[in-house]
Amino acid sequence: MAVNKEAELEELIRASGEETDDVAESSFDVATLLMVTRRSLPWMVLLIALGLTAAWLYLRYTQPVYQSASTLKIDQKTQSAVLGLGGVGGSAEAQQNAKNLAGEVELIKSNLIYRKLQDSLNLNVSYFVEGTVLASELYNATPFRIDYDPADQILYNRKFDIVFSDAKRFSLVSKAESGDVRVDGVFNQPLKIGNSFIVLKPTEQAIQPNIPYYFIIHDNSSVWSYIDQGLTVEIINPEANTIAISFKDHNPKKARDIVNKIDTLYLQEKLAKNTQATQQALAFLEGQLDQNSQRLQGAEEALQEFVKRNKTYDVKSDLATITEKMEALEEEKEQLLRKAGAIGEIAQLVEQNQVMVQEGDDIEQSIPALAILEDAQLTQQIGVLNDQQADMNRLLESYKPTTTAVQIRREQLDFTRRSIRRLLQQASQLVRSEVSKLNQQQRELEGRLQLLPEKETELVRLRRPFDLYEKTYLMLMDKKVEFSIQKAGTTPDFQILSPATLPTAPIFPVRTMVYAIGLAAGVALGLGLVAVRFFLHNTITTVRELESNTVAPVLGVVPSYDKEKLTVSKLIVDKNPKSAISEAIRSIRTNLEFLAPSKHKRLISITSTISGEGKTFVAVNLGGIIALSDQRVIIIDLDMRKPKVNLAFEAENTKGVSTILIERHTVQECIQRTSIPTLDFISAGPTPPNPSELILHPQFDQMLEELKQQYDVVIIDTPPVGLVTDGVLIMRKVDIPIYIVRAGYSKKTFLKNINKLVRGSGFNKLTTILNDAQAGGAYGYGYGYGYGYGSGYGYYEDEPAPKGLFGQLRRRFS
């Protein structure tokens, strides 16, 4: 018999473990979401209020930033043919214009402009007045100004507070790590601080003694950093060559003055730059004129010597044709020799890394030899080499020569130089070939001239270089006059399309945007709170959740008992017969009539998934309610691992079920009485080493039969079925198996065990009870915590009706 029961238990456990749960997971619990949202509404309102408050505080304690801007149009001038010696193609010209436009941006943001801006606007000294919350800069409205002689660094980047005792006397206070400095003085008298001197001079503004003033003297790096942080220069339209200059500052007047001053300084710099380019062109022309003048003088002296020696200067008419050809060949040969010289000059510059052209200058104007070659590809490669060399120089200022970026730039430079050498070699070969041809033609003509008188031949030979040098000298003189006129009439090559104006509204912070962000942040945090609470909500809280997630019917709801704090489960229905919990258990007793009428003997088991869900409390008080209806009830504690029924009745546990099953005591010897005459109980007894085997003993069935003969209702407090398997076999033997689910404590995953018991194990009569529910939920009760887990139970008094508006709101949203 025991073997058959063990096999039945194993089959039951295997069926309940292997049977899959057919109840689908709830895809989205709208009711729970609404419940969580309702409970989170006060927090959402609080978070929104906090967001708006944070936005107000941010606006209150943040200095506004103003921006002033101007728009410039750069007139890019093509100077490729400025010397009349050829030009580059259209594509190269477009690339050069784009580079020049980017170069103008870098010029405006250079330290050259910063230094002049610093000196012209006196940005080294900033004057402030302390406000209630923030300090305000007194730009061009200070009642005093500072003159200083910085013999050391003690004056720089320090805050000097000024306390005026009257209209002339003051105290200068500065705090430092080495110690505070305090100096008393009067206007126009030097004050010595360290080795430096400061002189305060009054202005037209009236001094208010009660207002705290202070000033800061900045060094050059601080001023340049301040300008660089606030200045923005960007290209608006590359095709129209327009540039926008803007500056951000807490003082709108200062921002406007800085932008206007930058426009003025840029105008001056452009004028100086254009004059410098013209001066370089004039210097090149002067050098060419000197060389050509010397050659012309040599030709003149040779011709004069010939005339003196031969006493003649006539050329026969039959030599006109040969002479014209010889002159043409000589002129062509001279041009080729000039190209050869230019090739050598460019090759020398490339080999010596001296191809450096200032940004924005014309390549051909800076390297006039390029114009002689009239090679667009070579000019473009020289420009690329110049840009790469400039890029390499800038990179070496920040990186070591061994870094990867520097090596990549060096490889690019070597590749460009090789390309230039190849082009120069090709051009040199072509020039040599052409010179060779011209020499051959000259030899032919000279052979023809040998037939003429020797004097005529010599005369013609002497006149050829003289005419050539004379023509070149006149051409260079014309160019020199042109550039002299250009230098005298140099004008800036940009226009101010829209000058800087005084900003009226700050660009930061934007009030509407800040409040919108604060509101959005509050709403987002509120929704995030709802989402977190919803996704973390993994416990059963209401009867609706219990019904929707299980196939077992709900027998009733047991509310929280808050009248007193109990360390263990106790019988309370006899002491509080009119309480809400007593009425709830009476409702459960009534519902039991539909499952098993009271005129029949009934065997009831009460179990749960884990310990702490309140099965002992429900068993004891359900037994008490049934006993109060004049039915004889006995409660059996089969949780022999953690017996608690004896604690509920404050009785001993020296004998009980375990001693009955080992036949040490009889059933009648173990029955214990309670305060209710018709309610008895049998404790679990001493904890045995094998509780499961004892339940399978035939003596257990005999005990139940004997109790059924003596009592109307037998209630069995079984062990949790989620921890041990004892309760599953006991549920097979009873008429009404009851499963306890504790609100706010039992996990939703525990309900899968109930569904497995009903569908996989055939417990069709299994019912559930929602325990520890707070008033206000479904079926008249919500959820809450009535007692703890592990350390004992904690039932409290019924909550009284809330008083006042706050209490009603709290109950409304709880």
TrEMBL record:
Superkingdom of this protein's organism: Bacteria
PANTHER family the UniProt entry points to: FERRIC ENTEROBACTIN TRANSPORT PROTEIN FEPE (PTHR32309:SF13), TYROSINE-PROTEIN KINASE (PTHR32309)
Localization per record: Cell inner membrane
All residue ranges annotated as the Tyrosine-protein kinase G-rich domain in the record: 456-533
Sections of the chain in a coiled coil: 282-346
Domain Polysaccharide chain length determinant N-terminal intervals: 27-117
Keywords (A to Z) from UniProt: ATP-binding, Cell inner membrane, Cell membrane, Coiled coil, Kinase, Membrane, Nucleotide-binding, Transferase, Transmembrane, Transmembrane helix, Tyrosine-protein kinase
Pfam families: AAA_31 (PF13614), GNVR (PF13807), Wzz (PF02706)
Catalysed reactions, semicolon-separated: L-tyrosyl-[protein] + ATP = O-phospho-L-tyrosyl-[protein] + ADP + H(+)
Residues covered by the AAA domain: 602-731
Assigned GO CC terms: plasma membrane
Known EC number: 2.7.10.2
Protein name: non-specific protein-tyrosine kinase
InterPro entries according to UniProt: AAA_dom, Bact_polysacc_biosynth/exp, GNVR, LPS_length_determ_N, P-loop_NTPase, Wzc-like_C
GO MF entry, a single one: ATP binding
Primary location class: membrane
Upper lineage: Bacteria, Pseudomonadati, Bacteroidota, Cytophagia, Cytophagales
Topology in the lipid bilayer: Multi-pass membrane protein
